[in-house]
Amino acid sequence: MSRAYRISVSESLNRIVHADDGVCSKLELLPLLSREETAGLLAADLAARGFVQEGDVAVRTEADGVRVAVDVTTGEVSVTLAAQQEVELTAVGEVRTNAPAPTEATQKLAREKARAKLEDRAQDATEALREEVTRKLEGRLRDLKAELDAISNKVTAEALKVRASQLGTVEEIHEDAATGSLTIKVRV
């Protein structure tokens, strides 16, 4: 009767895992003015809120890493968050054999098992980081939605004022910040 021997091989893995998530939307801007005029109003409002113009896109990166980009010509908005994390993992691969001394084949098999475990754990770490990024992004989206709605409302109000002045002489403007209503009296 032969004895069963266990061959164990330990492997380690150091890796930087990356995860990112994002969402795209579009500002609802009424077509009251030409695209260029609306883009100018939108760019001005975004600049006042800390956005930096990079071509047709206004970009702001928050302290928590959330990147908000608004294409001023189309109103397309993208909100993204990326993160990376260094992981240090170790795993042991085991093989049972009848030979008292480990052979190259049994060591190779044990090493492959250990590496497979490491890859699974690295994948789990990546997925955990992605879930964390998604949670953070979802939390920030509520705040950003309110800000983006305010931007859309302000740009629309400014566009209405410009359009009213194009139609005739503006005699009176009433804005109610509480309700968001805007009344413009124009003499044509």
UniProtKB/TrEMBL annotation:
Ranges in coiled-coil conformation: 111-154
Sorted UniProt keywords: Coiled coil
Keyword Coiled coil: yes
Sequence ranges assigned to domain FtsH ternary system in this UniProt record: 1-188
InterPro entries (alphabetical): fvmX5
Record keyword Coiled coil present: yes
UniProt xrefs under Pfam families: fvmX5
Protein name, entry field: FtsH ternary system domain-containing protein
Organism, as annotated: Myxococcus fulvus
Organismal lineage: Bacteria, Pseudomonadati, Myxococcota, Myxococcia, Myxococcales
